[in-house]
Amino acid sequence: MSLATWNHIVSQQGPLKCQKKKPGKEFILDHSQLMVKDSERKDRCTLSNDLQIFQALTRRSLACDLMGVCSFKTMERWHRFLMDATQVSAPGGYKAPTTEQILRADRAAGVRMAEGVSSLKRRADGVLPLDVALDALRTDPTVVFHMAPLPMQTNTKPDKNHDKPGGPKQPPKKDQPSNKTSKGGKGKGKGPGKTARGRMPQELVGLHQNLKNGKRICYNFNLDKGCAYAEAGKDCMKGGHYCMRCLGTHPAYERMGLAQSIGIDAPVTKQVKSPVIQINLAEEAGQAVLWRILRNDNVVAVHMGLPCGFEPSQGNQAQTAVQPATTAFHDTPRWTAYIDRPGPIVFADAFLPLAKRIKLPYQVGEKAEFDRWETVYGISWAPQAFVERAAGRSHPGHFLDGVHPVLKNMSDSGANKSPSCRARERSEQMRKWITKATELTKSMEDGKDDSPYHAKVILAKKNLRLFEEMISAFESPDLGLAKDIAQGFNLMGNIPTGSIYPVKPSYATLLPEQVRGMADLARPAIWEAAKKIVDPEIAAEVYRITLEERDKGWLRRPFAPQDLPKEAILTRRFGVKQSSTLSDGNRTMKVRPTDDFSESLVNSTNSCAESIQPMAADSILATMVYRDRAWGHEKLTGKTIDLRKAYKNLPLAAEALGDAYPCVMNPETGKPEAFQTLVLPFGARAAVMGFCRTSYALWRVGVSIFGLLWTVLFDDYFLVASELEERHVDMAQRLLFQILGWRQS
After folding, report:
1. Which residues of 439-478 are buried (b: 16+ CB within 10 A; e: fewer)?
2. What sign for the dihedral angle of Cα 150, 156, 160, 162?
3. In 3D, which of 76, 81, 135, 137 has the Cα closest to residue 108?
4. In the 3-class helix/strand/coil scheme, how is 564-586 assigned residue by residue?
5. Nearest Cα residue to 648 out of 526, 551, 530, 537
6. Could you tell me the domains of the chain?
7. Which residue from 203, 442, 495, 700 has the highest number of Cβ atoms inside 10 Å of its Cβ?
């Protein structure tokens, strides 16, 4: 028996990433024969931070539990024992156990279990042998030995003359004569110019101690008390005055708070310490982009600085060669109302540095006359109330936190129901919505009355009115999705969201009007770029697929350059070769056409308040484990569902038809051709968000209405059911896609 090391327990995403890389070659010399074969690929996961280590250990616990060698709870308890050792405070002169020490202890534990455990089979009393062995390892001296704190390394160099062969032996340090005078003076000591280093202050632990060239950094300069012996960027007797966080020319405590902030300026230099969006605020278009950013709900505070050191009191400045229009706003009194307006003290003052004692930027009222007082920050709880609330919480990195709350609610509500009861409720919902779909078809209500003509053609087989009522039935926050689909999705500007994904704002750097205004100039460059062919086979397949999309009504006729509208945005189309699994299990290669909307600057006009969070392999496994614990152990079956031509089911808005003209090379004529896209193109940011909102709504309808236990990853669904419910659940998911007009691959 051998215990798998941490980096061997890879996630399902790891092998998928490695499939794109071709395996290397290795030569084998056997007597007089030389053979060449593909080298064996060894999957390893990256363990660069604590979160990745925690996830790898959780995957190992899950693997051991699924194989039946030990329980998940016992293995997690062993992992917690290992990781808790890194948080133990070490005594003076020693450092806390490192990750390398914990890894050595885990390896020693594997050796001890291999020596002491003779069988992995469950004993007669139902106990697994490894469960007992793992609990005993926490007191095993050969394992705990590796987790002991180690002494810190010292930088003192040994005396060159100490104990040299033939030389005089040096006395121990404690026996050496002291430099102190008979009067108790301190002797020479260490005066100015000495470079002795003191103990690292607690506020600076874990930061840089030296510059890249090896020069030391002054501690005091990075603390709130500061250093008066030199200016920023200069050197004092204790080191250079540089930031120990980013090595800039400012104290470390001033770097606090910049992680969640962004800057906006026309020139961007390498010295900036926070992300900067390059926008020229001297132009009206740049000002319009700025106001769009400021209207976002996540903006808390704004610090405005006048360009070129101007002050509001300076008044109007004459426009000269020294102050051109591109470098500054000259009508400075216009900004006075914004700059001189006092703000709340928590925003107006600088961020408080890390310190053991809080300085006094706060108003303390009557107690201000005392030298000391106590202040409580946070919510006051009684001990019993705090324990009760804390008992229901879990660790933020817990494996089961990957289960979506909607799936948790469904699993909890169905825990006490029998399979026949769940099937009965599912059948009632199926009859209800079949009847509703029939009624809407007879009354010719499909929710597409105000749709553009091309959208009605694309959505001909879909009843958006039925889809809207289904979304409203389970109280989804994305209530406007059906109307957005009916009107089509835009490709430029602000991307609409449905309050279904985590808030992670991204901002545009260009306006749609700017990109459309440059389209006439950028079109010849993109047209010439489309003539370059790297792989003739891929280029021919891309052109064939493009003609196939045109024949299906997703694209319009080929255009010559002179036939395109003036503001038509041309986008280069290229092919990406991907592997695909057929229904019989065999793998084949296919080419996916992709439109480069980043090159055409369309994606630069997008700003979005949310970030897509797909349900990956870890979420699938966590959902299955949560179901097993809630409903009891059952033999499960799984099925993957892929939406056929997923993006081609949704139309573009009428305003976006001029923003999507893919340009593709015709291998027969040797000349590029342009087409007009009517459906969501693959490669546009706005198209991805629009489709993911739709696939999420389909997934949530299946969970909340039909009781389907499944996950969604873009256009792929993974459905899980017990053997007793397999056929009934499969019939429900087929009915869902059928009445809403979606086809499966």
Report:
1. ebeeeeebbbeebbebbeebbeebbbbbbbbbbeeeebeb
2. negative
3. 137
4. CCCCCCEEEEEEEEEEEECCCCC
5. 551
6. 6-38 (no CATH), 50-148 (no CATH), 400-416+501-740 (3.10.10.10)
7. 495
Tokens standing for residue 110:
């594997």
The yes-or-no verdict on residue 651 having pLDDT over 90 is yes
Dihedral class, residue 378 (left if φ above 0, else alpha if ψ from -120 to 50, else beta): left
- Residue 697 CA to residue 695 CA, distance in Å, equals 5
Residue 394 pLDDT more than 90?
no
Contact in structure between 519 and 567 (CB atoms under 8 Å): yes
Give the span between the Cα atoms of 316 and 402, in whole angstroms.
58
Asked if residue 301 has pLDDT above 90, the reply is no
CA angle 191, 195, 199 (to 5 degrees): 105
d(CA 198, CA 562): 74
β-partners of residue 277 are: 264
Helix (H) or strand (E) holding 333: none
How many H-runs (helices) and E-runs (strands) does the chain carry?
21, 18
- Is 0.70 topped by the overall pTM? no
Question: How many C-alpha atoms does 718 have within 13 Å on its Cβ side?
Answer: 17
**Nearest 5 degrees, angle CA 246-CA 251-CA 252?**
50
Specify burial of residue 236 (Cβ count, 10 A radius: 0-12, 13-18, 19+): middle
More confident residue, 328 or 304: 304
Task: Identify the three-state secondary structure at position 476.
Answer: coil
Window from 127-136, 370-379, 618-627 with minimum mean pLDDT: 370-379
Average pLDDT over residues 229-244: 86
Residues 6+ apart with CB under 8 A from 262: 274, 275, 276, 277, 507
Please tell me the distance from the alpha carbon of residue 313 to that of residue 310, in angstroms, as a whole number: 8
Give the tokens for residue 731. 């019939």
Tell which wins on pLDDT, 374 or 224: 224
Structure tokens at 632: 């009891």
Question: What whole-number distance in Å separates Cα of residue 252 and Cα of residue 262?
Answer: 18
- Is residue 644 within 8 A of residue 716, CB to CB? The reply is no
Torsion angle (degrees, nearest 10) of CA 238, 240, 243, 246: -130
- Looking at the DSSP bridge assignments, the partners of residue 576 are 592
Q: Are 233 and 242 in contact (CB under 8 A)?
A: yes
| Residue spans of beta strands (DSSP E) within 381-422 | none
Amino acid at site 493? G
Q: What is the pLDDT of residue 308?
A: 46
Please, what is the average pLDDT of the chain? 78
Residue type, 68: G
Distance in angstroms (rounded) separating the CA atoms of residues 61 and 140: 21
Of 487 and 297, which is predicted with more confidence?
487
Beta carbons of 447 and 468 less than 8 angstroms apart? yes
Distance CA 199, CA 263 (A): 36
Angle at 122 between CA 119 and CA 123, to 5 degrees: 90
pLDDT tens for 559-574 read: 988 889 888 999 999 9
Strand ranges in 252-335 using DSSP code E only, listed in sequence order:
263-265, 276-278
Burial annotation 251-282 (CB, 10 A radius, 16+ → b, else e): bbbbbeebeeeebbeeeeeeeeeeeebebebb
